[in-house]
Amino acid sequence: MKEWKKNYDLYLLLVPAAVFFIVFAYVPMGGLVIAFKDYNLFRGLWGSDWSGLANFREMFSIPEFFRITRNTLLLNLLGLIVCFPAPILLALMLNEVRSRSLKKISQSMLYLPHFMSWIVLGGIVYAVLSPKYGVINQILRWLGMKEIYFMADQTWWIITYTLSAVWQSAGWGTIIYLAAITAIDPALYEAASIDGAGRIRKIASVTLPSIMPTIVILFILAVGNMVSIGIEQPLALANSVVSNVSEVISTYVYRVGIKQGEFGLTTAVGMVQSVINLCLVVAANHFAKRAGGEGLW
Amino acid sequence: MVGGTASSSASSSASGEAKPTGELARPAPATRPRKAKRTPGELVFDILVYSALIVFTFICLFPFLNTLANAFSSSTAIQTGKVLLWPVEFQVGSMKMILADSSVMRSLFVTVFLTVVGTTLNLLFTIITAYPLSRRDLKGRGIFMRFMVVTMLFSGGMIPLFLVVKSLHLLDTLWALIIPGLISAFNVIIMKSFFQTIPDELREASVMDGCGNMRYLIRIVLPLSGASLATIGLFYAVGHWNAYFGAVLYINDPDLLTLQAKLRNILLLSQMDTSLEQMTMESKFTVIQESLKAAVIVVATVPILIVYPFLQKYFVKGSMLGSVKG
């Protein structure tokens, strides 16, 4: 009681946050009941009829469901394979650079794309890769090759999508690894040199193991995002010609849910996405702990 | 730059490195024992690393430079493929056209307003949430943390959130772009970790001098938290500046379109003709000139480039504050 009196003002400070999280996180979670309703915009959430699992049954019967799930998983898996190691590799290289000015300049340039919106990046990607005017295809023509329809060919679209994600995030991702590398005890490197280790050997035997906990934590977070591909990148890069591979769960929910008013069905789709996400994070965390590392919680 | 490469030495880079990281500083990463000469193997290794890094940096930068060059080149030069890194047949017409377009300028103003007001509110609410949670003597903070972390792991998704925003009558107001993202649980945790690094003895001493919680927060904690406030503020500001989906989702009023949403409307047109162009190989559909598209992109990018150098030192330092713990 005394404790409460002494710090009553601190509890008061927490009130806005409590209200915020209830209204904008917990109420929407409650709003998931829409998935079990035949939602009618005019009758509202509580006026609409219950429909049991009808929305979920419909979800599995629509042909797009398989496609958007496949695309989401495929793009995310590629992201995990290509985008996840990129900042680690880059950080290891930056750490080997002894020229401070080169390191600084390079870092500033590498961070830059992180500060641009996907609309800007998407616009640039479209312009640079355009088959007629794009500079990449100009270079291909000079080299005597045929132009490539990067954004209109399904395979090339997937490659472009993945590489543009590397472009946007790899540099920024190095910050966290460089911080972890900074924290390594230099005595370890000295010991390694005395044992005759070369620089590659030091990276493999000292640097990498030392930043392993950071790698594991970021990996868990990345796995947790496996299903929840953000909407800004796919929406900025998608086009009608390649919708077969560019439509993902989030863009589908937006297109069919918000634009066509199919609230019940798309809430169900979104809910499945959230549940799988949660399972993946919990599982990844569990395995990280089992493997002897530190988990997120 | 080249001179720096040749003359860098372990001692200077070690002491130089330790400085900017401030209180976190541990000995620099480059402290491997220095030999007078590099072995041939080391030299090959260095050449490989340096060239890989330079190539990657260039690839990273090239699309921006090309776009900048396009914005100031004539359409014929772009179409004949002469533009690489420098403007060809220099012109400022496209740029003038964009800057004269009042709707682009209005959306720029909306975005600046949103970024300033939104970031201020974000910071305010993040501080007042993170500070109590950083106090080990606060009962029940564990419960509140869990209450908050759950929202990072599970969410209702786009549709239920949209309906909440709608039922609060926030649609078609700029509040719809500020309030639903007011507090980020992730940033609260980073800031809370930072507040916890301030020694508790400082508070005990202040309490002795008759300083209450609020006064301590405002007079002692905040002035000591410059770097982390700047970093988290930067994260929020970049988020506001770049976000477009919120505006696409919640805003229909053309007067309230943010710059990114406006940009999307302009570029979407051109995307459509990119795909049409690709299917038909006809350029008749190219409604918007290439240099005009590039000019829009440049206008949207320049404000970031202007503030970028000033903020850089903060964000590197500040992100480390949040990450070293991991």
From TrEMBL, chain A:
Keywords: Cell membrane, Membrane, Transmembrane, Transmembrane helix, Transport. It comes from the Bacteria. Residues 69-284 form the ABC transmembrane type-1 domain. It is a multi-pass membrane protein. It is found in: Cell membrane. Gene3D superfamilies: MetI-like. It holds the Pfam family BPD_transp_1. The keyword Cell division does not apply. InterPro entries: MetI-like (IPR000515), MetI-like_sf (IPR035906), UgpAE/MalFG_permease (IPR050809). The chain crosses the membrane at residues 12-36, 73-94, 115-136, 156-182, 203-224. Its main location: membrane. PANTHER family: BLL4140 PROTEIN. Belongs to the binding-protein-dependent transport system permease family. This is ABC transporter permease subunit. It comes from Cohnella hashimotonis.
Automatic annotation (TrEMBL), chain B:
It comes from Cohnella hashimotonis. Residues 1-35 are annotated as: Disordered. Coiled coil: none annotated. Keywords: Cell membrane, Membrane, Transmembrane, Transmembrane helix, Transport. Its main location: membrane. Residues 108-311 form the ABC transmembrane type-1 domain. It comes from the Bacteria. This is Carbohydrate ABC transporter permease. Belongs to the binding-protein-dependent transport system permease family. It is found in: Cell membrane. Residues 1-15 have a biased composition (Low complexity). InterPro entries: MetI-like (IPR000515), MetI-like_sf (IPR035906).
